[in-house]
UniProtKB/TrEMBL annotation:
Required co-factors: pyridoxal 5'-phosphate
Superkingdom: Bacteria
SUPFAM superfamilies referenced in this protein's UniProt entry, alphabetically: PLP-dependent transferases
InterPro entries in the record: GrpII_AminoAcid_Decarb, PyrdxlP-dep_de-COase, PyrdxlP-dep_Trfase, PyrdxlP-dep_Trfase_major, PyrdxlP-dep_Trfase_small
Keywords, sorted A to Z: Lyase, Pyridoxal phosphate
One Gene Ontology term from the biological process aspect of the record: carboxylic acid metabolic process
Modified residues (N6-(pyridoxal phosphate)lysine): K229
Pfam families: Pyridoxal_deC
Similarity comment: Belongs to the group II decarboxylase family. Sphingosine-1-phosphate lyase subfamily.
Species the sequence originates in: Aeromicrobium choanae
Protein name from the UniProt record: Glutamate or tyrosine decarboxylase
GO molecular function: aromatic-L-amino-acid decarboxylase activity; pyridoxal phosphate binding
Length: 469
């Protein structure tokens, strides 16, 4: 293929993707609305695409840019000169490294970490990878971490606890956990305390009257902050910050007992492109402190106006008052969030449905970025139309017998043939046994919603397995 043919083909393949700019995709992507930021990021990626972050002595420019980003974040997050940091590929890797570092530093048998039930699923992934028991504690009022219950759990587990974590804010509800109170507990017991600020870490520093949550709080030992969220850099850049170098040291991996070069890594990855790091550095330098202050002001103003507008729409309510830029919308029995999600996509807006959890029903999750703020009136109009259409159609009903059967499934006993049957039942199987993504996901989501979490997990794994064969 010629270069022109290749670019034309890439453009054609992108036609079916969600838009990454314009503020209409309220999950997965973050848009500053600044064309010059996008352009300088593209040029930086191109300039550094062939560089390799494996060896900082080979590409010292990457080391200098990493130091600059850590320095910017250290200042924004009230850290002193002793705070150290590492650029990672995303929030999940930052969290993985925080858990691995805590486990290796403690060196105890049957390590455990204590977290609220609202903690991000990346902690469950870290627990699975690193053999750390994930002990979740039900949250208290307002879906915030219950300090008393977490303290009781910490004391019950004793020396097994290697890490305690909290969210600022939690993804599922958009609220900030009581960091100061939890930090007092962990500090008294000499425990590591990680603050997952992957979403809020580049908003809260410029938020008026934000609660104390960062290194200004004694006892906070590490923080994860994603630059590819509200720093508006291209995907693939997060920061893991430690309160001092001694806390970070177990994060590093070295291996010399083989005939090749001595492997030395600060992250899970070895080889890693310098492109995303260079792009992040370029965007942060371009926007700067005052630029982020303005972007946060616009984002929070848009979030406030959106929340107020949602409260005025029949059949909808706020699950919680948003602390930053995440809005979670509940529905009454006359409509269901899965139908609304489909109808919003018809109108050019992507909103993310969240499945039921315990006694909490399914809801809609909205991530607001600076580019979305100007379109809040247009979004609210589309939402009013979608809710009215959903109410006219009525909520999706799942056969009670089918729901009962799903609840009784044991994923460990199911073979491939059984999973193929489940995928067909869920509307995810196409012709010839191939899986297919249906045009309307509402009925699929409604069916998956009635299944217990372990069955959901198994069904989604089966779907991804077949989708990528």
């Amino acid at each position: 293929m010629s270069p022109d043919q290749i670019l034309a083909e890439l453009a054609a393949r992108r036609q079916g993707d969600l838009p990454t700019h314009g503020g209409r995709t309220l999950a997965y992507v973050y848009d500053s609305g600044l064309e010059e930021a996008d352009e300088v990021a593209r040029q930086a990626i191109a300039m550094y695409a062939a560089t390799n972050g494996l060896d900082p002595t080979a590409f010292p420019s990457l080391l200098s840019m990493e130091s600059d980003l850590v320095g910017f974040a250290r200042s924004a997050l009230h850290g002193g000169d002793e705070v150290v940091g590492t650029v990672t590929s995303g929030g999940t890797e930052s969290i993985l490294l925080a858990v691995q570092t805590a486990r290796d530093a403690a060196g105890v048998e049957r390590p455990a970490m204590v977290v609220p039930t609202t903690i991000h699923a990346a902690f469950a992934k870290a627990a699975h990878y690193f053999g750390v028991e994930l002990v979740t504690v039900p949250v208290g009022p307002g879906h915030r971490a219950d300090v008393a219950a977490m303290t009781e759990t910490i004391d019950r587990l004793g020396d097994r606890v290697v890490l305690v974590a909290a969210s600022t804010p939690s993804y599922a509800h958009g609220v900030i956990d009581p960091v100061e109170d939890l930090a007092a507990v962990t500090r008294e017991r000499g425990l590591r305390f990680h603050v997952d600020a992957c979403i809020g870490g580049w908003i809260l520093p410029w938020t008026p009257d934000a609660p104390a949550w960062d290194f200004a709080v004694p006892g906070v030992t590490s923080i994860s902050v994603d630059l590819h969220k509200y720093a508006y850099t291209p995907k693939g850049v997060s920061l893991l910050l430690h309160a001092d170098a001694a806390l970070r040291r177990p994060q590093f991996f070295a291996h010399a007992d083989w005939p090749g070069y001595t492997m030395l890594n600060s992250t899970t990855q070895s080889t890693k492109s310098g492109g995303p790091l260079a792009a992040a550095w370029a965007v942060v330098q371009l926007i700067g402190d005052e630029g982020y202050r303005d972007l946060v002001r616009r984002t929070l103003d848009g979030t406030r106006r959106l929340a107020e507008g949602i409260e005025a729409i029949d059949h909808l309510h706020l699950v919680e008052r948003p602390d930053t830029s995440l809005v979670v919308v509940g529905t009454d029995d006359a409509v269901d969030p899965f139908t609304i999600s489909d109808l919003m996509l018809d109108r050019g807006w992507f909103v993310q449905p969240q499945m039921r959890f315990g006694d909490e029903p399914a809801n809609l999750h909205l991530t607001i970025s600076a580019a979305t703020a100007a379109s809040v009136p247009e979004f609210l109009e589309a939402l009013r139309e979608s809710v009215a259409a959903a109410a006219a159609a009525g909520p999706i009903r799942i056969d009670p017998l089918l729901a009962e059967a799903a609840a009784g499934l044991d994923p460990d006993t199911l073979d491939d043939e059984a999973f193929d049957g489940l995928l067909a039942l869920a509307g995810l199987a196409g012709e010839g046994g191939q899986v297919a993504v249906p045009e309307r996901l509402g009925p699929v989501n409604a069916l998956v919603d009635v299944a217990p979490p372990r069955v959901r997990e198994a069904l989604m794994i089966a779907f991804l397995d077949r989708l990528t064969r």
